[in-house]
Amino acid sequence: RVAGYFRGDGLTIRHSLISDTGTEGIYVIGSSDVLLERNIIRRNNIERLTGYYPAAVKIFNQSWRVTVRDNLIIEHPDSNGVWYDVGNVDGVFVNNHVEGAQIGFFFEISKGVVAAGNVFVNNEQGIRILNSERARVYHNSFYNSPVMFDRNERSAQGDHFGWHPQTGPDVDEREGHVFVGNLLVGGTGFDAPLLHFDQTDSVCGQLTRPMAAQVDGNVYVRGASTQPLLSWSPVPGASCQTGFSTLPEFRDAVPGVESRGQALLTYSGTVFRSVELRHFELAQPLPGVTLRAVSAEARAVTGWDERERLPGAYPETAMPRD
């Protein structure tokens, strides 16, 4: 049912096709210094099991420095894409294409990850960061794939799997996230927030600091919608969570966010070179969108030379900028 269980430091899996498994494709357990690179991972959990939580790639139980780089991860409607689950430390998730999953990249109850240069297409969630600390998300492209950072009251006390939350950050340590230089696009008919920073009502009085250390330089493209552009917590109030329909509303309520962010909510032009052919370079310059600084750690893990890039996973447009 699983293509392979792997336990051991220094593992490399490269240039492989992992396809049509009953549950998981690759399952890495308690291992360090692992590299998964240039693989095609598709159609896993074909048994469509319920009461079980599969992923095309599962990184599980206190695995350190696992790098997932330049993989094609597609066709997982009944599964997550890549899931770092419980106690993992200092992950790297770069230059991957993830399409058609429940959650494209899931980082749960873990400490420290850099996600950069990835493309997420038609996932229920592109990235989800749950009950974790220090997730740094730079220059990714999201198409119909909302992003969620969230936290709740789950701890080692009274939990069905007490050792799970014990391996990650404690309830009051789930913060320090960075979300910078990303491109979030909702296509025709997309009617949901593009970005979430959510926490449950049960921790409203306990967790009063924001989850994010920095949210800036992102570009949001979406048409008319009945939903907020993004949601944020904590804020004053019984539920300590609210939504914002525009970036000026967001900036007024939360000082320091999105000073260089832009929202194109009435834009009718073509955004990507070709969604149908899966070319997610920008088709043309977006109005008012300029180069953004790229952090040193993003350059280090991706190998990018540019110190400035356009928001999203690609450095340039198909048509020249002025």
What are the key terms here?
mainly beta, 6% helix, globular, single chain, nine-stranded parallel beta sheet, ten-stranded mixed beta sheet
Mean of all residue-level pLDDT scores = 94
Query: What strand line-up does the widest sheet have?
Result: 1-4-7-10-13-16-19-22-25-26
Tell me the overall shape. Answer: globular
Helix content: under 10%
What can you see in these coordinates?
This protein has 322 residues and is mainly beta. It has a domain at 86-309. It contains 3 helices and 31 strands. The chain has helices at 163-166, 247-253, 296-302, and strands at 4-6, 12-14, 17-19, 26-29, 32-37, 40-42, 55-60, 64-69, 72-76, 80-85, 89-94, 97-101, 103-108, 111-116, 119-121, 125-130, 133-138, 141-143, 147-151, 177-180, 183-185, 195-199, 212-216, 219-221, 230-232, 242-244, 262-264, 272-274, 279-282, 292-293, 308-309. A 10-stranded mixed beta sheet has the order 1-4-7-10-13-16-19-22-25-26. Strands 3-6-9-12-15-18-21-24-27 form a 9-stranded parallel beta sheet, with no helix packed on it. It has an 8-stranded parallel beta sheet with strand order 2-5-8-11-14-17-20-23, with helices on one face. A hairpin with a 4-residue loop joins strand 28 (272-274) and strand 29 (279-282). It starts with a strand and ends in a 13-residue tail after the last strand. The mean pLDDT is 94.
